[in-house]
Amino acid sequence: MRKGVAVSPGVAVGTAYCIDEIFVDHDAKQLAEDEVASELALYETARDKVAAELHNLEQKVTAQVGEAAGRIFAVHASILADPAFTKRIRNWIGDEKVTAAAALQRLLNDYASLFARTKDEYLRERFTDIRDVVMRLSAHVSEVLKPQSHVLPGPLIVVTDELLPSQAVTLGNVDVRGIVTQAGSQTSHAAIIARSRGIPAVCGLRGALKHVTTGDTLVVDGREGVVLINPPPETLSAYRKLEREFFHLKDQLAANRDHAAATSDGVALELLANINNAADARAATAMGATGIGLFRTEYLYLTHPTVPDEDEQFQAYSEIIASSPGHRVTIRTLDIGGDKTVPYLGHTHQEANPFLGWRSIRLSFEHPDFFNVQLRAILRAAGAAGEKSGNVRLLFPMITTVEEIHKVRRIVRRAEQQLQREGKPYASVPLGMMLEVPAAAVSIRAMLRVVDFVSVGSNDLVQYLMAADRDNPKVNHLCQPLSPPVLRVLYSVIKACNKAGKPLTLCGEMAGQPRAFVLLLGMGLRSFSMSPAFIPSVKELATHLTAKDAQTILKRALRFSTTAGVKRFMSEQLQQLAPNLALLETT
Ligand code: PEP
Ligand code: MG
């Protein structure tokens, strides 16, 4: 038994499928003589495709961001064009009869050991460039996350170092029942993706790839953050029973998708979905979400092989709006930096404090052309949606000062004027702020005078309040949404918004956690945005209590001075209110 971080609740039993950080096809298959030519052709085609991608990237990035950023891709193209690079690959395929994927892996390993010996920062950076080129090539030669499910029995548990967004996109195609990662925490990509799919997951399990081999039987307990490797039959059957209960509960809850969300005394609630792509938007509708509370547009950039241009973005936003007919769709502008990086924005891993650094709206402000492309695409998609355009809203991440909101308004106005001059249809939409920086919480009253709506990003708000990086396993135990200081800050923000009559949503992960949900309800919050998979259980929980009950529970919870006290008390309350939902809470 191994312990990691519980990030997506539920229990799953399945066959381990280990994927290397980059390469899926790492079993060193020997090619037959007559396969060599087609493998060489596979590599050549991949090289042509990558060359075209890099050329496209260089042009778009130069136009949207500037020459210095565009040059990164010229460097990548020159690495790709280096005859020595390709010669080694060709030789390995031709002489040693290894697959193109295995040859690329070998090349990367060779470079890694070469560069490992250097302390020179500049050379290390060059390795990052080479790695990027190899990753692009490997994505074309090996089918990422297409496990040989035909040779592996039963449902799969994916075991990986870190789930890449590009891999996650293809997750929907195979029967993945559980996810285990070596890196990551509650708020990493893998965790967010697992929750949005309702897949039990454990992150931060150090050495997972060392201890687990493809084909092992695994149990993933996403409530406790525990993974069992080849457990004895009696343990396995106990977990299989829990897994059946989990499925049963999910089915039962999904049946409430068409019921309106309300407390037992009829107080209406708005349950919205956090989404990363169009597949999530469809899942949201299937789970009974009445709109999109948060569309994280950075995934558009992270999963796109080049920079999505205005028309590509317009298509993507239009697709999301169309898949949520008649509902509100809140689109958040690029929130890159911190844990998510995009090299073409000149963003590197060099910052000493990335979460306190150049991320999010701060980065968008410094790339006005790039930012403008995104705003224009969103405003046009809102316009194209016609009558439904009143439902599109624009949300800006990491707002820290009132001045930033004024600046956002000016930039949006300029984008609208541009579209008007060009005769392109668009719609004006409400502009809102993510409240995730403590300074903004402190000055909430002034902020409310200049924004149309507020969305609390509690994932970030918690890490900034506690001064503890949410992705650093050494300190993220401090990031507790149920801690007394966090609860006090949230309560004051909710009261201020309600008093000013400004629409307010909370879109951090805590919105979908049963204990936190009860407390937020008690504080007067009525709009919650969460991973789609949590909507049915939150809706069910709401029917077990009145708004007054929630208030009484909140008052009692606020008397505790420790997180452990609040958690214990809330677990008891939940046990009394809806014991069957305990299976869906993480520790
Ligand atoms: C948050 O910070 O709570 C949030 C919803 O945004 P993200 O997790 O994408 O930073
Ligand atoms: Mg955030």
For the structure shown, list the relevant keywords.
587 residues, 23 helices, binds phosphoenolpyruvate, Enzyme I, Chain A, domain 2, 49% helix, eight-stranded mixed sheet, Glucose Oxidase, domain 1, alpha/beta, binds magnesium ion, eight-stranded parallel sheet
Question: What does this 3D model show about the protein?
Answer:
This protein has 587 residues and is an alpha/beta fold. The chain folds into three domains: 128 residues, 3-Layer(bba) Sandwich (Glucose Oxidase, domain 1); 109 residues, Enzyme I, Chain A, domain 2, CATH 1.10.274.10; 324 residues, TIM Barrel (Alpha-Beta Barrel). The chain has 23 helices and 16 strands. An eight-stranded mixed beta sheet has the order 1-8-7-3-4-5-6-2. Strands 15-14-13-12-11-10-9-16 form an eight-stranded parallel beta sheet. Helix 15 links the parallel strand 12 and strand 13. The protein starts with a strand and ends in a 10-residue tail after the last helix. About 2% of the residues have low confidence. Bound molecules: phosphoenolpyruvate (PEP) and magnesium ion (MG). Phosphoenolpyruvate binds next to strand 10 and helix 18.
Mean pLDDT: 87
CATH class of the largest domain: Alpha Beta
Total domain units: 3
- The H-level CATH homologous superfamily of the largest domain, spelled out, is Phosphoenolpyruvate-binding domains
Structural class: alpha/beta
Instruction: Provide the β-strand percentage band.
Output: 5-15%
Give the strand line-up of the largest sheet.
1-8-7-3-4-5-6-2
The Rg value, from CA coordinates, equals 25 Å
> Biggest sheet, in brief?
8 strands, mixed
The DSSP helix count reads: 23
Distinct small molecules: phosphoenolpyruvate, magnesium ion
* CATH-derived architecture of the largest domain: Alpha-Beta Barrel
Number of strands: 16
Oligomer: single chain
CATH T-level topology of the largest domain: TIM Barrel
Helical proportion, percent range: 40-55%
